[in-house]
Amino acid sequence: MAQGDHVTLVLEAEDVTHGLYLDGYDVDLVAVPRRTDRATFVADRPGKFRLRCSKVCGTLHPFMLGELIVPPQFALLAGHRHNGIGGGRNRGVSPGRLA
Q1: Which residue(s) pair with 42 in the sheet?
Q2: Class assignment of domain 6-82?
Q3: What residue segments make up the domains of the chain, in order of their start?
Q4: Contact, 95 vs 78, CB < 8 A?
Q5: What is the DSSP string of 6-20?
Q6: How far apart are CA 69 and CA 29, in angstroms?
Q7: What are the tens digits of pLDDT across the range 12-53?
Q8: Which residues contact 90 (CB under 8 A, 6 or more apart)?
Q9: How far apart (Å, rounded) are the C-alpha atoms in residues 54 and 3?
Q10: How far apart are CA 6 and CA 88, in angstroms?
Q11: Whole-angstrom Cα distance, residue 36 to residue 79?
């Protein structure tokens, strides 16, 4: 994903109530058995954001973790330059400084 993308998270539960909280974006989903919860947001901040189960759901609850990684926009431009994408238009542009 890239900074500025619209992201939709969908949480479904089959067994017990589960929750999903995304640090940094204040997204908090709760899905009870046989129900779905969803949230859409814009990934407008670069960084690594922790995902975790927010409802005690069983013995594996402490291990229900993940992360959302949103790279900064300049990192994407630098990657395109190194991959030859853009026909040389990004020549001379260094990460963190757009010319």
Answers
A1: 6
A2: mainly beta
A3: 6-82
A4: yes
A5: EEEEEEEESSS-EEE
A6: 19
A7: 988 899 999 999 999 999 999 999 999 999 999 999 999 998
A8: 77, 80, 81
A9: 25
A10: 29
A11: 37
